[in-house]
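Data deposition worksheet. Section B asks for the primary sequence of the deposited chain exactly as it was used as input, without tags or linkers unless they were present during the calculation. Section C holds the resulting structure in token form. Section D is free text for depositor observations; keep each observation to a single sentence. Incomplete worksheets are returned to the depositor.
Section A, Depositor: J.P.
Section B:
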Amino acid sequence: MNKILITGASGQLGGLVVKHLLETEKLAPARLIAGSRDPSKLDALAARGVETAKVDFDDAHSLSDASGRAETVLIISTDALDEPGKRLRQHKAAVEAAANAGVKHLAYTSMPKTEPGNPVLFAPDHYGTEQTLKASGITYTIFRNSWYQENLLMSLPQTVRSGTWYTSAGDGKTAHIARDDVARAIAASLAKGPAANATYTLTGAKAYTNAEIAALAAEATGKPVKVVDLNDEALAEGMKAAGVSEAFIPLLVSFEANARAGGLAEVTGDFEKLTGSTQKPLTAFLEESKALLSGATE
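Section C:
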């Protein structure tokens, strides 16, 4: 029996992957191992018959123990962005543990266009992890996930309420995809079992500029949104004046630079290839989110 370990199973993406493996792919709970730094967060899955394990990327023993129970391991990239190089060290430790445990197949959640030159500050973490996977000798699947539709909710509600969107992305487009659709595609791939090396880029069905997204948000909420184009320096100054943490500003600006350079504009058919189904369009997501976007829920 090919047992699958899902790291970060108590997180948003990991939890959805487990859900789709159980409910969409109809895998037996006994085939799954849900991993988390805090296994108590997995009690609901344990009650459904899913094996649980402590998986702490900073704890070599937990990585070895959990990997030793599985034939396939999905490494969901960690959120360790507070210390340069930390996330890559964590991912390398997970790959090493899997290799030492004799894992047959590794899967990893990355981002589009990780190659050197990508302006996103954490792109080197993903590129380094991808190279580590390829050098491990284990067959692998890399999921290069475009930005989630849900990421828009980090700033778009405030943008809609203020009526102004300050951006340095220019005419760069982003092919946002729903987090649930990403999880659906990953689950479909894992359920098929170990295969030859593969890289999938999971994107939305259409890419939009920020001006186009603003127009769609305005249509959904009935509130006009004006887009103001700035350069990176002016955008950073504006963020600082608005009270955004100075430590976080360079990362946010790097996202804009990446969009401007076309780093998120690619649209692929990989979601449909893996799932055989259609995905949630951005227009539907914005319509579903219109109460939050317009402030009607407050």
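Section D:
The mean pLDDT is 95.
The radius of gyration is 20 Å.
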